[in-house]
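Predict the 3D structure for this chain.
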Amino acid sequence: MSQESHDHNFKNLLADFPKEALEWILPEATETFGTILKIEFVRQEPKKRKLSDGYLSLDMPILFSFEKGQILLWLVEFQEDKSRFSIYKLMRYVIDSAEAYPKAMVIPTVLFTNRRKWRKKVTRELEFKLGTKTFLHFEYVLIKLFDMNARDYYHSSNPLMKILLPKMNYEPEERTEVIRQALLGLYGLVTPMLFDKYSDFIDVYAEIREDERDSIRQEINEHKEETAMLMQYLKEEGFKEGKQEGIQAGKQEGVNQGLSESLMVFLKARFGAKGLELFERNISKIADIGKLKALIEAAAQANSVQDVAKLVT
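Done. Predicted structure below.
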């Protein structure tokens, strides 16, 4: 899978579950600042320092507003390959974001998703000191999924944890149970549309082989009293034949669907029922990838749903 496809999959994950992600990674935010009142997905590229500079792309900047008046700008970066990570680039993102949103508390987070042990750790902080004076101190929240034991999250009520189970650490003999827990848990926590979307995610990142599918279905089917509806759903959706083509093969339909669903999430998050109405009435049938990307950018920056509607022709 390309890095672009991987990034897109995880961006969708946070776009669909921003509150759940915050509760998992930064639970102290709501404990300190109170209930979340508003969530905004902000512009992805920080401003350039020079016109000749390449774009500095943040994976998922999310602006949370809380009942006690605090504004938190959460910068989340996804890394499958840790060699691509640069703490210096991340620090520049944070500084630019703090300048753009001076009233917000900016918290950088890096989510490392590769299922491998590290021989060498990444740089966790930067500090410049002289005597008793500290001139700069910078650090970020580091989450390494492979350091988390999948079995510890079997009973979690957070759908994000269920989706990420295949990326966590587990013994080879636990593989089937991890997949079963991911599918069963997710099915009981989300809408059918989101289950359909993220059962693909589980399928791809668990790297389910064709020869495993029957045994996985049989394992799930052994719990008939709790999974009858799920089994029927899996049969209807063709789980046995595999659903990897949308994400893994990078087919045109999968790209279109992913962008369209992302746009729907952005419009709903930013403009509520009016945004969803605009999507269903004017946007849902758009298949042009360039047009969908432009509308996602517009949805992230627009001041009103009318601003987005003007771009739909």
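The chain has three domains: 1-147, 170-250, 252-309.
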